[in-house]
From TrEMBL:
<dbReference type="GO" id="GO:0016616">
    <property type="term" value="F:oxidoreductase activity, acting on the CH-OH group of donors, NAD or NADP as acceptor"/>
</dbReference>
<feature type="compositionally biased region" description="Polar residues">
    <location>
        <begin position="255"/>
        <end position="264"/>
    </location>
</feature>
<keyword id="KW-0521">NADP</keyword>
<dbReference type="InterPro" id="IPR036291">
    <property type="entry name" value="NAD(P)-bd_dom_sf"/>
</dbReference>
<protein>
    <submittedName>
        <fullName>NAD(P)-dependent dehydrogenase (Short-subunit alcohol dehydrogenase family)</fullName>
    </submittedName>
</protein>
<dbReference type="InterPro" id="IPR002347">
    <property type="entry name" value="SDR_fam"/>
</dbReference>
<keyword id="KW-0560">Oxidoreductase</keyword>
<dbReference type="InterPro" id="IPR045313">
    <property type="entry name" value="CBR1-like"/>
</dbReference>
<feature type="region of interest" description="Disordered">
    <location>
        <begin position="242"/>
        <end position="276"/>
    </location>
</feature>
<dbReference type="InterPro" id="IPR020904">
    <property type="entry name" value="Sc_DH/Rdtase_CS"/>
</dbReference>
<dbReference type="Pfam" id="PF00106">
    <property type="entry name" value="adh_short"/>
</dbReference>
<comment type="similarity">
    <text>Belongs to the short-chain dehydrogenases/reductases (SDR) family.</text>
</comment>
Length: 276
């Protein structure tokens, strides 16, 4: 499948020269985030497991807008050695990291009923969606601390909201994905814990809910485009010094609509905080 073009937006002096890393960025929402941050004037490292696909994506993003500086870095979030190598590469080149977007994620269970999900599947989901984000964040922490007002964005989902899952009338309560939902709930908790610890370093840590986007994660059944889903995480990755931290921001419904509506075409609550 051909990835859609990432629309170029004007660079800003406040972000020009900043350094960003986006994991799982060779396709989908991650690719769109990388393009948006590059348009702001950031040098963006596009992290991906597959060297051929990652190199191709970085080259295509750069070709779409000549002013962009997008560079591939091999990064498998389940492999601490590649995270350490990526940190070393970025550190040697720049000495700091201004923005980290932990975008890499999987939904390995499909339609398997929760009580039939095996521990191997649960471990696989947590390795990428939870442990991977912690691995990369910890590897990049020295570089984040070396920056002024660095930002960390964890790509979550409204499906990880315990508040909404406990509401029988909400769509989230009906989406019983044991691996994915529980992993995103864990990531939300990690977001809050890191936000509290790193507040004193001036590092902002937030969670983003991109909405129900058409990506490989859901077989392209979503009602929003990957480009639309990139808007909130890209904004959080570009926050100014003193911006919000410990927040969960994005669409309020995984389908982009209210429970009572028969159409999933209307996007509501854009930019609203999502309850933990």
């Amino acid at each position: 499948m051909t990835e859609p073009t990432v629309r170029a937006t004007p660079a800003t002096d406040s972000h020009r020269g900043q350094i960003a890393l986006v994991t799982g960025a060779n396709k989908g929402i991650g690719r769109q985030i990388a393009g948006r941050l590059a348009d702001l004037g950031m040098t963006v490292y596009l992290g991906a497991r597959d060297t051929e696909r990652g190199t191709k994506a970085a080259a295509e993003l750069s070709a779409e807008a000549p002013a962009r500086d997008v560079r591939f870095v091999r990064l498998d979030v389940t492999d601490p050695q590649t995270a350490a190598a990526a940190a070393e590469l970025i550190g040697r080149a720049h000495g700091r990291l201004d923005a980290l977007v932990n975008n890499a994620g999987i939904n390995p269970e499909g339609g398997t009923p929760p009580t039939e999900v095996g521990l191997d599947l649960l471990r696989r989901g947590f390795e990428t969606n939870v442990f991977g984000a912690v691995t990369v964040t910890n590897a990049m922490l020295p570089l984040l601390r070396a920056a002024q007002a660095a930002r960390v964005v964890n790509m979550s989902s409204e499906l990880g909201s315990l508040t909404l899952a406990a509401d029988p009338g909400h769509l989230v309560a009906g989406r019983r994905l044991l691996v994915y939902n529980s992993a995103k709930a864990a990531l939300n908790s990690i977001t809050l814990i890191y936000a509290n610890e790193l507040r004193g370093d001036g590092i902002m840590v937030n969670a983003a809910n991109p909405g129900y986007c058409a990506t490989d994660l859901n077989g392209h059944r979503g009602v929003l485009s990957a480009e639309q889903g990139a808007a909130v995480p890209a904004e959080l990755a570009a926050l100014p010094p003193g911006g919000p931290t410990g927040r969960f921001v994005g669409d309020r419904s995984p389908e982009g609509t209210s429970v009572a509506s028969s159409s999933f075409g209307e996007r509501i609550g854009s930019g609203a905080e999502v309850p933990w």
